[in-house]
Specification:
mainly alpha; rod-shaped; 2 strands; 172 residues; two-stranded antiparallel ribbon
């Protein structure tokens, strides 16, 4: 079976057509064209949905990027505030050194280390100063170096603190 199409316009003289204007295709070719046309329409509709989804996702990406930037700024501000609080705990001569420490954890440890040491020339209740009568520090309040100094210079006081902390005497 063949289908004949007339591309001529009926308003042209007498409604007849010339052979150049007639197109003849087989039924199989016609069905293939119809199927291709239907598939094209489905793809066009799918493409429209995909474009809509792409725009939706782009909007989500833009929103998330903005949120990320906002959170990064808030984090930087918070980190700056925390560092400033640590800097305020240090004497002036240590602040320049502390500014070179990149992490908050490192800065915290540096402040902790320097806060445990009394200013030079001050009288304190640390090991090696004064008598045993005015020594008020506990085991956990002393640094490792202070405990070692106490163990070497005042072993009886070191043993007393050790017993209080651990409940028995360590003979070294």
């Amino acid at each position: 079976m063949e289908i004949t199409f007339n591309s001529g316009d009926s308003s042209q003289g007498g409604g007849g057509s010339t052979p150049e204007e007639d197109i003849t295709i087989t039924k199989a070719e016609h069905e293939k064209l119809v199927n291709d046309s239907n598939e094209f329409m489905k793809l066009k509709e799918s493409s429209g949905k995909s474009e809509g989804r792409i725009k939706e996702l782009e909007g989500s990406v833009n929103a998330l990027t903005g949120e990320k930037e906002e959170l990064a700024q808030r984090f930087a501000d918070l980190e700056g505030n925390v560092k400033q609080q640590f800097y305020e705990q240090l004497p002036e001569e240590h602040k320049k050194i502390a500014e070179l420490i990149p992490t908050i954890e490192g800065l915290k440890e540096y402040v902790k280390l320097n806060a445990a040491k009394p200013p030079a020339g001050s009288d304190s209740n640390r090991p090696g100063t004064g008598t045993g009568d005015n020594f008020n520090s506990k085991w956990d309040e002393l640094s490792y170096n202070e405990k070692e100094e106490l163990r070497k210079k005042r072993p009886e006081l070191w043993r007393k603190l050790y017993r209080e902390k651990f409940g028995f005497n360590n003979e070294q």
